[in-house]
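Renewal narrative, Specific Aim 1. Our central claim is that a sequence can be written position by position from structural information alone. The example that follows is taken directly from our test logs and has not been curated for this report. It begins with the structure tokens describing the chain, in the order in which they were read.
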């Protein structure tokens, strides 16, 4: 972390500030609504403690539905320019490694005083969305409120219930009306996803893993599979982030947008599709790409995550940019949305804290708390630090993988090419799904090519895993 400009520890000044914060903030404005009676719930990972958002639905006349998303009010306790803010501004994100989590904000805040914890009253910024019967957004608004988390739910349990493979979780049964409420949220989320996919949002599915420990011993890598509960939250958050971006624009406020530009390597995506019998247009077209992806998933569901990873690499990384009202916006190619900010995870992402401060100023008629010049520099910094954090996470993840593969030197594996840079070629194994460097192999390899590789060395400390083509010889 230090080598990449990330601070693993909070400064003494930040800890002094933290000690002075003894309780959650009380309602700071008379206009804050009291919405504690609504059946708010959180749906997150089993072990998540930094709860950034809650959601609730309400059926309205004529088939319309109100969806409310409550976002933790972090800015009320983390003051702009404070030592705590300086740390968050430096790292810009929490860093999640196999060995340790390095939170952007101290756990006293992120998992307690600014977290939307179960059975606790908390201040929040509420994003209200009213959808027509077909899932079209009719109206929206943003305002401060006090909320109460009535049920802390986990993705896997909720997904199993929604998908009909398990009974309703007891935490849902304990709250009257919550089961029907979550079903309503799920129906709206599915409609939102369908509408985005009709516009060209991409159906991508990658293999995510996390280390499994028995005490202090690393025993394996477990898959994090997508499911209906994760998609429910993702789709509601995409909608909420769009409302946030448009709200600031309507108030003539600048904002930091999250964009994924038109793919630089579209030609290679065209080649990948052609290899699978599909012709894509010469110019980037998200709708055509989505049609191909759906066809490919149906034809080869087992190999689809490998194809998804290749497409993601070729699409290019997302970035933060300044949006000034009236100026053209690049949009998010992968989500098929034009207006998209990051606003729903302020406990662990600094761009979301910036957005929250802009929203609060816009709601109360105050001037923007950042100049356009500051926002331009912050957007660039957040992009760079997010990349640095991902590299740290990948490096520690590779150390875990190297530890697991240490006893497999000389064995052969099926692999796919996932990246090519000036520093070399990278491949990922089919099983276990870990990535390493290909030290020697066939000439003219490209992202997406499949080959057989042999493991030749591992270095746990540096996170190095090295392969050669199974047809190559070591010297």
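The sequence written for that structure reads:
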């Amino acid at each position: 972390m230090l080598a990449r400009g990330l601070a693993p520890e909070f400064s003494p000044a930040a800890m002094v500030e933290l000690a002075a914060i003894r309780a959650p903030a009380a309602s700071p404005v008379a206009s804050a609504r009291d919405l504690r009676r609504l059946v708010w719930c959180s749906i997150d990972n089993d072990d998540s403690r930094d709860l950034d958002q809650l959601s609730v639905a309400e059926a309205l006349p004529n088939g319309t539905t109100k969806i409310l998303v409550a976002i933790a009010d972090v800015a009320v306790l983390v003051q702009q320019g404070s030592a705590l803010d300086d740390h968050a501004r430096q790292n810009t994100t929490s860093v999640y490694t196999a060995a340790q989590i390095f939170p952007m904000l101290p756990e006293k805040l992120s998992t307690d005083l600014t977290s939307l914890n179960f059975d606790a009253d908390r201040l929040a910024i509420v994003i209200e969305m009213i959808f027509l019967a077909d899932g079209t957004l009719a109206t929206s608004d943003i305002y401060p409120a006090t909320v109460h988390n009535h049920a802390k739910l986990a993705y896997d349990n909720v997904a199993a219930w929604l998908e009909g493979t398990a009974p309703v979780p007891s935490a849902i049964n304990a709250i009257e009306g919550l089961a029907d409420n979550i079903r309503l949220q799920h129906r709206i989320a599915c409609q939102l996803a369908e509408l985005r996919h009709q516009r060209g949002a991409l159906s991508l599915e990658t293999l995510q893993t996390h280390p499994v420990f028995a005490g202090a011993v690393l025993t394996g890598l477990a898959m994090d599979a997508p499911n209906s509960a994760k998609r429910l939250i993702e789709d509601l958050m995409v909608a909420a982030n769009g409302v946030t971006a448009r709200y600031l624009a309507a108030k003539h406020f600048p904002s930091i947008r999250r964009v994924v530009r038109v793919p630089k390597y579209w030609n290679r995506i065209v080649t990948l599709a052609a290899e699978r019998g599909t012709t894509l247009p010469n110019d980037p077209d998200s709708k055509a790409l989505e049609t191909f992806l759906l066809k490919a998933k149906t034809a080869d569901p087992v190999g689809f995550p490998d194809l998804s990873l290749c497409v993601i690499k070729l699409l290019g990384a997302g970035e933060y940019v300044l949006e000034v009202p009236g100026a053209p916006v690049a949009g998010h190619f992968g989500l098929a949305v034009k207006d998209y900010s990051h606003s729903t995870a302020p406990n662990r992402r600094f761009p979301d804290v910036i957005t929250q401060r802009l929203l609060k100023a816009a709601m109360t008629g105050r001037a923007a708390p950042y100049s356009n010049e500051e926002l331009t520099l912050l957007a660039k910094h957040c992009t760079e630090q997010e990349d640095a954090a991902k590299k740290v996470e990948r490096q520690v993840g590779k150390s875990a993988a190297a530890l697991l593969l240490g006893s497999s030197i000389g064995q052969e594996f099926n692999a796919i090419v996932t990246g090519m840079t000036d520093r070399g070629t990278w491949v990922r194994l089919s099983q276990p799904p870990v990535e390493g460097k290909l030290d020697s192999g066939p000439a003219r390899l490209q992202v997406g090519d499949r080959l057989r590789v042999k493991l030749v060395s591992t270095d746990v400390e540096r996170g190095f895993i090295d392969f050669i083509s199974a047809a190559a010889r070591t010297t």
